[in-house]
C-alpha cells in the first residue's frame, strides 16, 4: 500500500527565513508520481509540482525548490526567503501508475510571521 | 481559463435531504474524482471515474453516489446525508495518457454542513 509521511505538523518562521518541508513516501511500484499542493487559508488546493519516479532532477521555481531522492524515498520542498503569503498547509501526495488516486500526507502547516 | 468548478461552494442542509454537488471541468480530462477532507483524517478519495460511464469506488464511498454521463461533469450525490458527511469536498480532474499521469487539478472545494 502506498503511504506518504509528512512528519512536521507545524512550522513557524519569521519572514525571509528559509523553510524546508519533509516528505517521505512508500510504494512498491517502480513507476509513480509525486506532487506538492498548497492549501492557503481560503481553502482551495493549489498545484505546485509533479515529479515522476524516473526524473530525479531537482527543480527550482522562483523561491520554491524541490529535492527528490529515490534512495531515501524523499521529496522535500524548500521555500527560500519566506513571505507572509506563503502561510498555508502544504501537502505531499503520491500516485501509483496503476491508478490515479492521490494518497496525501497529513500536511504541514507553515506560518510565516512578519 | 482552464478550471474545475464546483457548486455550491457552501451548503447547510438537514439529515436525510438529498443533495447534489456538481463538478465540471473544461480541460477535456478523462479522469475525475472526489475527495473529502476532514481534520485529523486528511484527504480521502470517495469515487473516481476514468472516463464517461466508467466509475469506481475510492476509499470512503459509503453514503455517496456519482455519475459520469458527460466527460466534463462528475456530480456527487448524497441520497440521505448524515452529520458524519459534514466535510470539505474537492473534485479533481486529470488527463489520462499513455505516457503517464499528468497533473490533477482541484476545484475550489464545497463546504457541507449536515445538521
Could you tell me which chain pair has the largest interface and how many residues each side has?
A-B, 21 and 26 residues
Our estimate of the beta-strand percent of chain B is over 45%
Mean pLDDT of chain B: 94
Helical proportion of chain A, percent range: under 10%
Structure in words:
The complex is a heterodimer of chains A (114) and B (115). Chain A has 114 residues and is mainly β. Chain A contains no helices and 12 strands. Helix content of chain A is 0%, strand content 54%. Chain B starts with a strand and ends with a strand. In chain B, 0% of the residues lie in helices and 50% in strands. Chain B has no helices and 11 strands. The chains are: A mainly beta (114), B mainly beta (115). At the A-B interface, β5 and β6 of A face β4, β5, β9 and β10 of B.
Summarize this structure as a short list of keywords or feature phrases.
A: 114 residues; mainly beta; four-stranded antiparallel beta sheet; B: 115 residues; 0% helix; 50% strand
Brief rundown of the structure:
Chain A is mostly beta strands.
Note the topology.
The complex is a heterodimer of chains A (114) and B (115).
Chain A lengths: L2 E3 L4 E5 L4 E3 L2 E3 L5 E8 L6 E7 L6 E3 L2 E6 L4 E6 L8 E9 L6 E2 L3 E6 L1
Parallel strand pairs in A: 2-12
Antiparallel strand pairs in A: 1-4, 3-9, 5-6, 5-10, 7-8, 8-9, 10-11, 10-12
Chain B lengths: L3 E4 L2 E4 L5 E7 L5 E8 L3 E10 L2 E4 L7 E2 L9 E3 L8 E8 L9 E3 L3 E5 L1
Parallel strand pairs in B: 2-11
Antiparallel strand pairs in B: 1-3, 3-8, 4-5, 4-9, 5-6, 7-8, 9-10, 9-11
Amino acid at each position: 500500500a502506498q503511504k506518504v509521511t509528512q512528519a512536521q505538523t507545524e512550522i513557524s518562521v519569521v519572514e525571509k527565513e528559509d523553510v524546508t518541508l519533509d516528505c517521505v513516501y512508500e510504494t512498491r511500484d517502480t513507476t509513480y508520481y509525486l506532487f506538492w499542493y498548497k492549501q492557503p487559508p481560503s481553502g482551495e488546493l493549489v498545484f505546485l509540482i509533479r515529479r515522476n519516479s524516473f526524473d530525479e532532477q531537482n527543480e527550482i521555481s522562483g523561491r520554491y525548490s524541490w529535492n527528490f531522492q529515490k534512495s531515501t524515498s524523499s521529496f522535500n520542498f524548500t521555500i527560500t526567503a519566506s513571505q507572509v503569503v506563503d502561510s498555508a498547509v502544504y501537502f505531499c501526495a503520491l500516485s501509483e501508475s496503476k491508478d490515479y488516486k492521490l494518497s496525501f500526507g497529513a500536511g504541514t502547516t507553515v506560518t510565516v510571521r512578519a | 481559463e482552464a478550471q474545475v468548478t464546483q457548486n455550491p461552494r457552501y451548503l447547510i442542509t438537514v439529515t436525510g435531504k438529498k443533495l447534489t454537488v456538481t463538478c465540471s471541468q473544461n480541460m477535456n480530462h478523462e479522469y475525475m474524482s472526489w475527495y473529502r477532507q476532514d481534520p485529523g483524517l486528511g484527504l480521502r478519495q470517495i469515487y473516481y471515474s476514468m472516463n464517461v460511464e466508467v466509475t469506481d469506488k475510492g476509499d470512503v464511498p459509503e453514503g455517496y453516489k456519482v455519475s459520469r454521463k458527460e466527460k466534463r461533469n462528475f456530480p456527487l450525490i448524497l441520497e440521505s446525508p448524515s452529520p458524519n458527511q459534514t466535510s470539505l469536498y474537492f473534485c479533481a480532474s486529470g488527463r489520462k495518457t499513455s505516457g503517464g499521469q499528468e497533473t490533477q487539478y482541484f476545484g475550489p472545494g464545497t463546504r457541507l454542513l449536515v445538521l
